[in-house]
């Protein structure tokens, strides 16, 4: 008899099968042992296949149905399991069990791009999703956020238009995973409320080096509710322990060519090698009086609250420590729902959030095919769940007894009567004013302050370093240069930008070769807010080698001792040392053979954070004849990375056009320090930016 090991997946989950060993017998889905998995059943050796072959039919039938609809947005994603630990007592603010100091809660996190299909690339210019499912002891809480704290639109009713315009164009089905095309910019140029988010989307925020080095945001204003029912407003933030790090545009483009799966691989390998990614969960808490005193509306998802005005208080730590066992069963089938909320946390009237509360439940039904999707192990709460909902497609539970309605008096007759609602333990919607002056009136309008579309875009732009501002201006020029037939679109965009910052508008107009148009009439005057350091990537980077990869280019004759020392020094700082060579088998100075991790031709420097050229004269002479070696150095320099070198490597650096600066150093201690940084000051010497 086949020994099918069955395990329980948490309390609410269903049994699932573990892979068996070679001693176990292969069976059909119905448990019938299979004698031959290589040949279908035929009438004679060369005859037709028989309909009777239930083994073949079941196998092909299952295969034919292996795919489900991909997500409408955020189709490409990577997931990981982990734990959230609450580190601060906030019981005065929230009664949520997940925030009890010391409480550890299992989580599943999925990072994603928004625009591309499931098989698209990891590194386009695109917003990243940052969705966290907390399996708390009082039910699942899903914080379905992004790596940007604001959004393109203020009201959910615009979402289908946004997504239709940004996805590949409806007739030609391209471009894949890119905003740089007619329909997106046509729509955006007619929607001034996108201006703030576009500023972020043109910045390097959308080119994260690694999921491990990006922030996450709940975006909307939510509520925290304490045991007395008192509520405060809250914004949620995820702060990466490794600090912020983004690539630059040329690097991101080349990364795409080097490795489609760059970020997925990075996440998997980090967890696999025990370098568990971590984020702190922070909250910005404020009250109604603060909300009313601001020049923006806290219910408007195109606005943020500067961290200088309301500091972020750290209340817990997220650690990702386990890769999925199965991509489809977990990462693909995980269903995030902003409606998954727990006692102690609540919604606000943000009209974007309110629309999301409908959309996600609805989409899961069409993606997963059944209202019973909550029974899939990755979605099932880890705490018990009990109600009177019954039946439906793919019901996998077997409820006992007659109690499928409430109220009932079955218990009085000795039968199980089922669960009952509880005011004390149950989720109670906050009893707060709706926020509308004309309470109860049905109106298709937005509150007045929603009409300020430019002040926070200006705040963002003016909070950036010079180099970051140049990247934003250049991104606008590139993106708008891809708008082909619609010549009024770039003009409309620049007219919008004039309300943000004159210098930015002028740079973009100049880059596009168009005259500066009149500013778009603004519904409200743009105000100057104090710049916020928290909005800059460069001001929030950490000079750490931890989590970063150093590519060491070697060749025949490389000093064995120096190589061993360099690798050890990098690893001692928790960096990753990756050896690259023209041939996988390289002979070192002591005659030993060293297997390289990557062949030079397919391992370009953009996949590293810094490079070292560790060669002797003979090795350098051989590299001088190889295009990929010159490109390796040229790109590392152009992508503003540290280059460590031996004296013998100088001719290669010269051939690659490297002008020595602070980031070009000998391979010694100085290199380890340099390798933990980027050299943005170098940029004006290597490329012309708008
Ligand atoms: Fe989503 N969004 N969204 N979104 N979203 C989806 O749900 C939607 C919005 C976000 O890894 C879909 O399960 C509407 C803001 C993430 O599985 C869908 C609106 C933010 C993910 C959907 C928004 C997000 C999604 C597609 C405007 C940041 C991926 C598949 C009202 C706070 C979750 C799915 C994962 C996915 C609808 C706006 C984040 C169609 C209608 C704002 C991270 O339901």
UniProtKB/TrEMBL annotation:
Q: Which UniProt keywords apply?
A: Heme, Hydrogen peroxide, Iron, Metal-binding, Oxidoreductase, Peroxidase
List the residue ranges of the region (Disordered). 1-43, 403-422
Domain Catalase core residues, every copy: 27-414
Here the segments flagged for biased composition (Polar residues) are 26-41
- Provide the cofactor list for this protein: heme
Which Enzyme Commission numbers does its entry carry?
1.11.1.6
**Keyword Ubl conjugation applies:** no
Pfam families reported in the protein's UniProt record:
Catalase, Catalase-rel, Catalase_C
Job description of the protein = Decomposes hydrogen peroxide into water and oxygen; serves to protect cells from the toxic effects of hydrogen peroxide.
User: Which family does the similarity line name?
Assistant: Belongs to the catalase family. HPII subfamily.
| Protein's name according to its UniProt entry | Catalase
């Amino acid at each position: 008899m086949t020994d099918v090991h069955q395990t329980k997946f948490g309390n609410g989950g269903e049994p699932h099968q573990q892979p068996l060993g070679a001693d176990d017998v292969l069976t059909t889905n119905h448990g019938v042992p299979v004698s031959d998995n290589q040949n279908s059943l035929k009438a004679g050796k060369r005859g037709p296949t028989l309909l009777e072959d239930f083994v073949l039919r079941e196998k092909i039938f299952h295969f034919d149905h292996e795919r489900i609809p991909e997500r409408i947005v955020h189709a490409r994603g990577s997931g990981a399991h982990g734990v959230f630990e609450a580190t601060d007592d906030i019981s005065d603010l929230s009664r949520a069990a997940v925030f009890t100091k010391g409480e550890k809660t299992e989580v599943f996190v999925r990072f994603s791009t928004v625009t591309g299909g499931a098989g698209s690339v990891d590194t386009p210019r695109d917003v990243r999703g940052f969705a966290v499912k907390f399996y708390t002891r009082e039910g699942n809480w899903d914080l379905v956020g992004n790596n940007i704290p604001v959004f393109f639109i203020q009201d959910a009713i615009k979402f289908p238009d946004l997504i239709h315009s940004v996805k590949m164009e409806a007739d030609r089905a391209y471009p894949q995973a890119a905003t740089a095309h007619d329909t997106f910019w046509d729509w955006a140029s007619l929607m001034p409320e996108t201006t703030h988010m576009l500023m972020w989307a043109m910045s390097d925020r959308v080119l994260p080096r690694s999921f491990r080095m990006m922030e996450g945001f709940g975006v909307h204003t939510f509520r925290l509710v304490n045991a007395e029912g008192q509520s405060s407003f809250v914004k949620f933030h995820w702060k990466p322990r490794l600090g912020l790090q983004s690539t630059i545009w040329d690097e991101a483009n080349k990364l795409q060519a080097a490795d489609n799966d760059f970020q997925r691989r990075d996440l998997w390998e980090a967890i696999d090698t025990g370098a568990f990614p971590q984020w702190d969960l922070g909250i910005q808490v404020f009250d109604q009086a603060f909300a009313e005193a601001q020049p923006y509306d806290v219910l408007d998802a195109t606005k943020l609250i500067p961290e200088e005005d309301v500091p972020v208080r750290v209340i817990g730590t997220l650690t990702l420590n386990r890769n999925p066992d199965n991509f489809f069963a977990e990462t693909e089938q995980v269903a995030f729902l902003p409606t998954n909320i727990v006692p102690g946390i609540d919604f606000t009237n943000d009209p974007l959030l309110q629309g999301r509360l409908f959309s996600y439940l609805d989409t899961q039904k069409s993606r997963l095919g059944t209202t019973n999707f909550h029974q899939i192990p990755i979605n099932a709460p880890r705490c018990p769940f009990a109600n009177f909902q019954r039946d439906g497609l793919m019901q996998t539970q077997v409820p006992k007894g007659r109690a499928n309605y409430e109220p009932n008096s079955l218990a009085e007759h000795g039968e199980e009567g089922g669960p009952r609602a509880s005011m004390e333990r149950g989720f109670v919607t906050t009893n707060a004013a709706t926020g509308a002056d004309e309470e109860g009136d049905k109106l298709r309008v937005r509150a007045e302050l929603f009409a300020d579309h430019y002040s926070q875009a200006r705040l963002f732009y003016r909070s950036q370093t010079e180099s970051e501002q140049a990247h934003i201006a250049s991104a606008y020029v590139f993106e708008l240069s891809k708008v082909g037939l619609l010549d009024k679109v770039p003009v409309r965009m620049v007219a919008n930008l004039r309300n943000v910052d004159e210098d930015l508008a002028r740079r973009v107009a100049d880059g596009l070769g168009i005259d500066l148009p009149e500013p778009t009439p603004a519904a409200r005057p743009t105000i100057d807010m104090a710049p916020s350091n928290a909005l800059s990537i460069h001001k929030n980077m950490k000079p750490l080698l931890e989590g970063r990869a150093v590519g060491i280019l070697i060749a025949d004759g490389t000093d064995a001792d120096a190589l061993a020392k360099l690798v050890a020094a990098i690893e001692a700082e928790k960096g990753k040392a990756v050896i690259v060579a023209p041939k996988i088998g390289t002979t070192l100075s002591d005659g030993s053979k060293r297997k390289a991790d990557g062949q030079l031709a397919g391992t370009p420097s953009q996949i590293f954070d810094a490079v070292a050229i560790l060669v002797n004269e003979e090795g350098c002479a051989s590299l001088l004849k190889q295009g990929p070696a010159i490109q390796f150095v040229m790109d590392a320099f152009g992508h503003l990375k540290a280059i460590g070198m031996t004296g013998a490597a100088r001719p290669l650096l010269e051939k690659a056009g490297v002008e020595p600066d602070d980031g070009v150093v000998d391979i010694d201690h100085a290199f380890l320090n340099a390798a933990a940084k980027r050299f943005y000051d170098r940029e004006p010497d290597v490329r012309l930016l708008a």
